[in-house]
Write a structure and sequence with these properties.
By secondary structure, the protein is of the alpha/beta class. It folds into three domains: 243 residues, Rossmann fold, CATH 3.40.50; 112 residues, no CATH class; 106 residues, no CATH class. It is built from 18 helices and 14 strands. The chain has a nine-stranded mixed β-sheet, with helices on both faces. A three-stranded antiparallel β-sheet has the order 10-11-13. The chain has a two-stranded antiparallel ribbon with strand order 5-6. Strand 1, helix 1 and strand 2 form a beta-alpha-beta unit. The longest helix is centred in the middle third of the chain and has 23 residues. It is globular, with a radius of gyration of 26 Å.
């Protein structure tokens, strides 16, 4: 497999270091078919005013909100196509004058992998054989590793998952005819500088730039960034450009901190160092104590650490710093934390933050929920490699209060165990007569008086079996029966109350891409992965809104952070 572009600037040969003089191909992909359209038009105006730096190329695509308005492409490195007038007159260029007239702007689904790849390949051809480095900026809504959506498109009710995003870069990078390497990837979206995503992209992207926390809807200050790049002598190195973007972003939003109490953060990461970070974190997970007292120490460290998105994500360095405070100095846990921080220091090129709410940000966040582990999280490559979700599940059980009445929380057998005991597994799914055999075994487990004098656990198990029987009746093919088994395993990891398991089984089974009968596929707006709910837009009304330095926000937040004003950076 091809490795990510080499972002190191030092030469292994003696003599002076040769500066990379290749100009930049800047590609800006704007998923604006949502509430961000108008902010993105402002960003395009900024790009138009700043112009392409040092022989580079700057192109953009905007998919605006609403039905009937075409998707647009722009080339800001070409001269504007100004209209001819009968009399000489100064004409102020507008976006329309930079628009690509050859592009058939029928509405695009910016939440699809194919649409993203088609835009990048179109922009790649602009090089016309020139040696150039690539900066791809993806602008839109983001959710991090929970809900798993990126670049939402409301008209098509679609969005990219982490898996689809990583897959797009893999396909472009490994193309035998014309491989496309992304030197720098900018994520102009909320919650995207996560260890989970960085780990998935490490093979195909050199540097990742993004925020750990909520990003203001205005997005990146493009005019400020491009203008600063133009002031430099010649094309900038990858690392220098990444540091400049982080620096100018925070300098821009520092005014929002002082004037409006709004915090912001941004970081640049070397993705070829994510293997070291993952190895160090896996070692830390392996030495975290499993005792009740040990879990309570981690709980306290988690509470003090910097968090994001309704406290679902945590800054990894700050978490390690807080864990070290509650465990003995020089012990296994403290040493493992030091190793994680050392690995992060080689991975984080530059991290800056301004304001109250994100003041302990250091560049890489990870998933660390307070109440339950998302069933979808277990599939993340970072999660599988580090075994983090297994620890999380044990930690959440150990730190949860006991129910006031145990009889109100009946325990039922794992759903996948029921199916496997009935005879359904990977090797028998295609066996003739297996569906009838499994159905007979399940039906025999339902008590004749279920719902009468039966225990709450028996009643709950009977409801689960009835739902399995109805879903099994729809599983006509071996592929669909395997999908049912996978659904059961996913539900088992969800830590759900027994009464909610039947609905979870149906919802997840119907959204499976292997269930041909259902229209509710993984790409549907009707799935759990989707952000298309009433709380979906990350506004002040949302539970995911940023915390301001106002008295009202401070008095209602469980975190007791110092009300600072100013900028911090690391390393």
């Amino acid at each position: 497999m091809k490795r990510a572009p080499n972002v190191a600037t030092a030469s292994i040969h003696p003599g002076p270091i040769q500066r990379d003089q290749r100009p930049w191909l800047v590609m800006i992909y704007m998923a604006g078919d949502n509430c961000l359209t108008e902010d993105m038009v402002v960003s395009l105006q900024d790009v138009m005013q700043a112009r392409a730096p040092h022989g580079g190329i700057v192109v953009a695509q905007l998919d605006p909100g609403g039905t009937g308005i075409a998707t647009q492409r722009y080339d800001f490195s070409a001269p504007p196509r100004l209209p001819r007038l009968s009399k000489s007159a100064a004409i102020q260029p507008h976006l329309e004058h930079y628009r690509d007239p050859a592009f058939d702007g029928l509405e695009r689904n910016t939440g699809s992998q194919a649409s993203l790849m088609e835009f990048v390949r179109w922009a790649w051809k602009k090089k016309a054989g020139r040696q150039m480095r690539t900066l791809l900026i993806l602008s839109g809504h983001g959710s991090g590793s929970t809900e798993d959506f990126f670049l939402k498109d409301e008209t098509s009710a679609d969005s990219l998952t982490f898996e689809e995003l990583a897959g797009a870069f893999a396909k472009m990078h490994e193309d035998k005819d014309d491989p496309i390497a992304i030197d720098v990837l900018g994520l102009d979206a909320c919650y995207m500088c996560m260890g989970e995503l960085a780990y998935e992209l490490r093979e195909h992207v050199g540097i990742l730039i993004g925020p750990e926390g909520l990003e203001p809807s205005f997005g990146w200050p493009y005019r400020r960034i491009l203008s600063e790049v133009r002031l430099r002598e010649g094309p900038m190195e990858d690392k220098q450009l990444a540091k400049l973007i982080v620096h100018e972003y925070i300098e821009h939003y520092a005014d929002y901190d002082r004037a409006a109490g709004r915090a912001a953060d941004l970081a640049a990461l070397r993705l070829n160092r994510m293997d070291e970070v993952a190895r160090a974190f896996k070692a830390l997970v392996g030495v975290l104590p499993e005792s009740k007292a040990g879990h309570e120490k981690v709980l306290l460290a988690h509470w003090y650490a910097q968090t994001y998105k309704a406290d679902q994500f945590v800054d990894l360095k700050d978490l390690c710093d807080q864990i070290r405070k509650v465990f003995p100095a020089g012990g296994r846990v403290a040493k493992a934390c030091q190793n994680v921080v050392a690995a992060l220091k080689t991975c984080v090129i530059h991290s800056r933050c301004s304001g109250f709410a994100t003041q302990f940000s250091h560049g890489v966040s990870i998933y660390f929920p307070w109440a339950m582990v998302s069933p979808d999280y277990w599939a993340r490559p970072f999660a599988r490699h580090t075994r983090w979700p297994s620890y999380l599940k044990a930690h959440l059980v150990a730190t949860r209060r006991r129910p006031r009445r145990r009889d109100l929380m009946p325990i039922t057998p794992p759903v996948s165990d029921l199916l496997q005991r009935a005879g359904l597994n990977e090797s028998t799914a295609a066996t003739k007569g297996i569906r009838k055999k499994v159905a007979q075994w399940l039906a025999a487990r339902i008590p004749s008086d279920a719902g009468g004098s039966s225990t709450p656990a028996a009643v709950a198990e009977a409801a689960i079996i009835r739902r399995l029987l109805s879903l099994l009746d729809m599983a006509n093919t071996s592929r669909e029966r395997l999908a049912l088994l996978r659904t059961a395993k996913r539900v088992d990891k969800g830590d759900l109350p027994a009464v909610d398991i039947p609905d979870a089984l149906a919802r997840r089974f119907f959204r499976s891409r292997y269930t041909e009968r259902s229209k509710y596929t993984e790409r549907s707006k009707y799935t759990e992965r989707s952000k298309y709910t009433e709380r979906s837009k990350y506004t002040e009304r949302s539970k995911y809104a940023d915390r301001m330095r106002t008295a009202g926000d401070r008095e209602t937040w469980v975190k007791n952070l110092p009300p600072i004003v100013g900028v911090s950076e690391w390393p």
